[in-house]
């Protein structure tokens, strides 16, 4: 690995996630022996996040939606994908995943909870005016 853009140690999944800026490739390594498990080569990925059992790939925002892919953290196979609709002039406060639930919050709008298994959407209206959290901790 040369010139890593970042290195993230994921204790929950026992994986190491790296990004090579030169090759524009994400790599997932086993934490026990630091063996390369697989690579994710997709120049459209704007951000990637780990959560228990999964990698969340976030693509560049379009005017009306954001494309998302969930990959298995174990082997990189696609588990789910969706195009989540967005309010066109509202800033995205956060996109996070915890297990099978995706959390999407836009400034001044309700929190969206999406069940990635069924695609079912739930809105939490009372969250519309809450400030964005500084960080997330999944226990």
Structure write-up:
The chain is an all-beta fold and 139 residues long. It has no helices and twelve strands. It has strands spanning 4-10, 15-20, 25-30, 36-40, 45-51, 54-59, 65-72, 78-85, 92-98, 101-106, 111-115, 121-124. The strands form three sheets. A four-stranded antiparallel sheet has the order 1-2-3-4, with no helix packed on it. Strands 5-6-7-8 form a four-stranded antiparallel sheet, with no helix packed on it. It starts with a strand and ends in a 15-residue tail after the last strand. The mean pLDDT is 86.
- What's the shape? globular
User: Main sheet?
Assistant: 4 strands, antiparallel
The total of beta strands comes to: 12
The quaternary organization reads as single chain
Order of secondary-structure elements:
EEEEEEEEEEEE
Instruction: Tell me, rounded to a whole number, the average pLDDT.
Output: 86
Number of helices: 0
Instruction: List low-confidence stretches.
Output: none
What structural category characterises the helix and strand content? mainly beta
Share in β-strands: over 45%
What is the radius of gyration computed over CA atoms, rounded to a whole number of angstroms? 16 Å
Measured between the Cα atoms of the first and last residue, the distance is 30 Å
